[in-house]
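can u do me a favor
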């Protein structure tokens, strides 16, 4: 049995040198890696972990990194690459005719080779200098990438016409065409390392770094994104995995949403800014929501018109004392008691330097939307998104405003963005489910409402206070189940 201190030494080493995060559920895996590697080199566990150094990184990468991938994985992203990203970058680079792409964490090569196929489909003039780098820490998968021989399983999402154009059969393998192979250069690189050769300033037009950051420690993730932003040309693009976002990590990118997928564009140099400092989170009651929802045209109408919740923002009571500096406690307490006019008065009375604070702007937008001032709520959201474009709460409030204005497409778009930016956020899922139910999209309604129920079970109480419309967790879950029952009939 491997001693716990030895396992902890390995965990600390891979976190520091590879950037990889392993929680307590993975300790058995790490112990098995120690046992196997120590046996292979003829050492005991203690000696092995005490002598961990740079020479062992490649072997650990083989043991601890996930190399499963395939051509055209998440095809929507490659549609966006072909139809939006590359045409724009080609226009910008038309003077020098140089195009540089990076696949960071390329595994066995399917991703960078797919990028090469997409570039070839654009029929660029031969005078263009196109370079694609594929980098990975695992030397074994890089060797497979250089061989460029694949099984049919690796081509399971590849369009038939693409397969016939760029592959030839050789026994049970499919061999990639030399023209595509020549476009990609593979290198062994550690994405957790500040390698000056890889991360040269403004070196790349496009970087794919998919399903890599999700395995990093928070510190390694922020450092890697900072290097990526430095290595992208102004206006360059970053593609992450579908389960990865830059929310809370970087404010140097615009979020793009096309082709039913999300990706990022680096801000121009004049727009760069540090991430807004995190503020402490802001801190209902049960009722039969099904009847209320059935009689309303939109979710925001339910919030505004439920029996005892109407408050006239135009006739505020005496303004209570303002808390010092940026303390929102008084405003939040008034909001909790649905004294929206007074809450808004407190927010408006905060010091001037609070007007650019994301928490202040978000609370203002929520209070305005609850009180029916939807145009003003949208303005507050726009101001917030100018500061923090990846604010999931602002996109959710905008979804409510857009639905109330009759713009269901806009509402769905903002809900989808909110759900992407914060996958644990229940209310956008609930809202998407309600919209889908009303428009007869039963499959979508079932999917979103079921997801909302799962998320509501563990949703933070402070966020339910802010975004739950004043309804308690149990009432929201009951509403989802009632609507889900309708969708399943």
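np, heres the sequence
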């Amino acid at each position: 049995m491997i001693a716990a201190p030895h396992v902890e030494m390995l965990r600390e080493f891979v976190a520091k040198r590879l950037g990889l995060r392993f929680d307590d559920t993975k300790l058995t895996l790490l112990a098995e890696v120690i046992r196997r590697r120590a046996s292979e080199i003829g050492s005991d566990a203690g000696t092995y972990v005490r002598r961990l150094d740079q020479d062992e990184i490649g072997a650990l990468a083989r043991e601890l990194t996930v190399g499963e991938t395939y051509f055209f994985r998440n095809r929507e992203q490659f549609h966006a690459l072909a139809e939006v990203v590359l045409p724009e970058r080609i226009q910008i680079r038309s003077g020098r005719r140089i195009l540089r792409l990076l696949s960071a964490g390329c595994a066995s090569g399917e991703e960078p080779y797919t990028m090469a196929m997409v570039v070839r489909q654009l029929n660029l003039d031969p005078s263009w200098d196109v370079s694609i780098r594929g980098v990975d820490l695992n030397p074994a998968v890089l060797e497979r990438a250089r061989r460029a021989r694949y099984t049919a399983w690796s081509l399971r999402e590849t369009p038939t016409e693409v397969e016939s154009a760029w592959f030839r059969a050789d026994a049970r393998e499919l061999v990639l065409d030399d023209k595509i192979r020549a476009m990609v250069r593979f290198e062994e690189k550690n994405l957790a390392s500040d390698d000056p050769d890889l991360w040269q300033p403004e070196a790349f037009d496009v970087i794919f770094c998919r399903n890599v950051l999700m395995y990093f420690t928070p510190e390694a993730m922020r450092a890697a994104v900072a290097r990526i932003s430095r290595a992208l040309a102004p206006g360059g693009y970053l593609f992450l995995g579908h389960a990865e976002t830059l929310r809370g990590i970087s404010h140097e990118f615009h979020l793009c949403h096309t082709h039913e997928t999300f990706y990022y564009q680096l801000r121009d140099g004049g727009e760069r800014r540090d991430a807004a400092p995190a503020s402490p989170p802001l801190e209902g009651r049960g009722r039969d929501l099904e009847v209320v929802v059935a009689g309303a045209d939109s979710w925001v109408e339910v919030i505004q018109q439920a029996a005892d919740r109407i408050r006239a923002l135009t006739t505020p009571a005496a303004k209570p004392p303002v808390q010092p500096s940026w303390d929102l406690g008084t405003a939040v307490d008034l909001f909790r008691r649905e004294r929206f006019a007074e809450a808004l008065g407190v927010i408006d009375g905060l010091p001037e330097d609070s007007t650019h604070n994301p928490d202040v702007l978000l609370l203002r937008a929520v209070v305005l939307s609850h009180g029916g001032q939807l145009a003003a709520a949208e303005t507050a959201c726009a101001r917030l998104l100018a500061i923090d474009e990846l604010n999931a709460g602002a996109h959710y409030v905008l979804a409510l405003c857009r639905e109330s204005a009759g713009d269901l497409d806009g509402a769905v778009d903002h809900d989808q963005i909110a759900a992407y930016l914060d996958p644990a956020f229940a209310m956008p899922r609930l809202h998407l489910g309600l919209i889908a139910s009303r428009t007869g999209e039963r499959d979508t309604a079932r999917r979103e409402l079921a997801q909302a129920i799962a998320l509501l079970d563990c949703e933070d109480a402070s966020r339910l206070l802010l975004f739950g419309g004043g309804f308690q967790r149990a009432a929201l879950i009951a509403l989802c189940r009632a609507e889900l029952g309708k969708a399943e009939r």
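Residues 274-287, 307-318 have pLDDT under 50 and may be disordered. hope that helps!!
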